[in-house]
Amino acid sequence: MSASEQELQEFRAEVSAWMQENNPADPGFLLPQTFMEVSDDQQLEFLREWQHKVWAAGYLGMAWPREYGGGGVDAKFQSIVDREMRRHAVPICFNVIGLGWAGPLINDIGSEEEKAKYLKGILTAEDIWCQGFSEPDNGSDLGNAQTRAVRDGDEYVLNGQKIWTTMGNFAKYMILLARTNTETARKYDGLSYFLSPMHVPGIDTRPIRKITGEFGFTETFFTDARIPADCLMGEEGQGWRIAMQTLQYERGAEAGNAGGLAMVRVTIDDMIEQLADVTRDGEPVLRDPIMRDQLVQAIMEEKALAIGDKRAHIGPLTTDYPGSLPLSRKLRASEMTRHMRKLAINLQGAAGGLYVGDDEVRQGGFWQRAYFNSFSATIGGGTSQVQANIVGEHVLGLPK
Question: What range defines the domain where residue 337 resides?
Answer without folding.
Answer: 268-394
